[in-house]
Amino acid sequence: MPTYAVIGATRGVGLEIVRQLAANPDNTVFATARNVEKSLHLAKVIQEAPAKNVVALQADVVDHRSLKVAAEKIAQATGGALDVLIHNAAKMDYANGNLYRSLTEYESMDALDAEFIEAFKVNTLGAIHSVDAFLPLLRKGSTKKIVIISTDGGERDVVWKTGTTILAAYCVTKSAENMVMTKYAAELVDEGFIVAAISPGVVDVSGTAASPRMSAISW
């Protein structure tokens, strides 16, 4: 029975990944949320899963200790193994209006620094925290796969060709996340791991968005 951990599973792409994985009764899916009790969309997917094969776990990628706790709970349920890790957590800050700013459009360097540091914690360090927490379980799994949900906005060629100057903090820190994926791929290849970053393209997430402005994930 394949086991999956989906990190960042409360809405959008992560939620849909959970729903589709849960449709196969042979799968067991562990879905993380920063606040399980408030994750109503995830609760609905869990309730509607035909095989009741989805388990919600509380964890925040900024808090590496919470991911370790989630990994321990999965180990208890699976005998210490995990087959596939899908890291989907990301920060796109609509609330303060900074999401669509370019590098020259912040009102101050302090505001830019604060936005970039928070984005880096989630989009870059979050991926490291996630992989490191679950790596001992993945080493005992049967498939040894790590998937990071990335974005074309983190690719230099795409940004250059499209002339995209906005989304500065998001694109820069997701570009760093792509390097995180590459570093893990190089380190783990001799152990038989497959590590990949996948960009889903423009995805309409309005149905489960936290904000009415979140009509799509660009790239």
UniProtKB/TrEMBL annotation:
Q: Where are the transmembrane segments?
A: none
Gene3D superfamilies recorded: NAD(P)-binding Rossmann-like Domain
Q: Which InterPro entries does this entry report, sorted A to Z? A: NAD(P)-bd_dom_sf, SDR_enzymes, SDR_fam
Pfam families of this UniProt entry? adh_short
Full protein name: Uncharacterized protein
Organism, as annotated = Rhodofomes roseus
